[in-house]
Write a structure and sequence with these properties.
By secondary structure, the chain is an alpha/beta fold. The protein has a single domain (2-264), classed as SGNH hydrolase (Rossmann fold, 3-Layer(aba) Sandwich). The protein has ten helices and five strands. The protein has helices at 2-22, 24-29, 40-43, 64-72, 87-94, 116-125, 128-143, 145-160, 188-212, 251-264, and strands at residues 32-38, 75-79, 102-108, 165-169, 215-217. Helix 9 (188-212) links the parallel strand 4 and strand 5. One of its GO terms (molecular function) is triacylglycerol lipase activity.
């Protein structure tokens, strides 16, 4: 699966490069303001090393916002993404980067509000009952309260950047049905519950994007077959020395996000 997916990514990156060459005269005349918002999936966690100047925000040169600008040019990037960011953090700490000049906005957020990290940690280390209960509560939040919170956030982004194309990139399913996850491998039942939770977050995000009238990109089919614990994963498994990266995209995973953003940016 990884060989096939890598070939697809290589071909798509070649297409992006051709698009960049074709757009070179327009870029030479002017650049557009691009604001990147969101949490660890947007900042590039998993594609280490990180920019030391970003501190705890863990921004990577291989994050999808930075890869897009590197591949296409034509944009002046304001990267205010930050690992651990919640919906409230984006609203209170990141939206000030937007302006009437902003032409493109990308965002991935909501996973921390749905307690993705603590739920995943519980599913890895606690009982099946604990995992089922934790994912059930997280999923209920994602399909209900989170929808309104995200829709309000997206609407505020549109208000502050009325000329911008707003692209919401969702989260993938986290784990393959079978296969080693590294230091700790959850049971089949736990994996099913974790992926059902990921589906709830993705569907809640889709509903919110539709309500606010912004573009939603579903990453579940894009990374299908390359989840953590698969033979050739594009998401990190469990490495006890790098727990922060657990279930976050690898460099190839972030490249996949870049390609989808490139495809939906206009």
């Amino acid at each position: 699966m990884r060989k096939f997916t890598s070939l697809v990514l290589a071909a798509a990156m070649a297409f992006v490069a051709m698009d960049a060459v074709a757009a070179a005269p327009a870029r030479a005349a002017a650049t557009q303001e691009y604001v990147a918002l969101g949490d660890s999936y947007a900042s590039g966690v998993g594609a280490y090393p990180y920019d030391s100047a970003s501190g705890a925000c863990l921004r990577s040169p291989k994050s999808y916002p930075r890869l897009l600008v590197s591949a296409l040019g034509g944009y002046t990037l304001k990267d205010v993404t930050c690992s651990g960011a919640t919906i409230a953090d984006v609203r209170g700490k990141q939206l000030s980067a937007l302006s009437g000049k902003t032409a493109l906005v990308s965002i991935t957020v909501g996973g921390n509000d749905a307690q993705f990290s603590s739920v995943a940690r519980g599913c890895l280390t606690e009982s099946e009952w604990f995992c089922e209960t934790a994912t059930m509560y997280s999923s209920y939040y994602a399909r209900n309260q989170m929808v309104g919170e995200l829709a309000g956030l997206y609407s505020e982004i549109k208000r502050r950047a009325p000329r911008a194309k707003v692209v919401v990139l969702g989260y993938p399913r986290l784990v393959a049905r079978t296969g080693s996850c590294g230091a700790i491998s959850p049971s089949a039942t736990k994996r099913a519950n974790m992926n059902a939770n990921a589906d709830a977050v993705a569907e809640g995000t889709r509903t919110a994007a539709g309500r606010a009238g912004v573009t939603f990109v579903d990453m579940r089919p894009v990374l299908a077959g390359a989840e953590a614990c698969s033979p050739k994963p594009f998401l990190h498994g469990v490495d006890l020395t790098r727990l922060t990266e657990t279930f976050h995209p690898t460099g190839e995973g972030h490249a996949a996000y870049t390609l989808m953003l490139a495809a939906h940016r206009s």
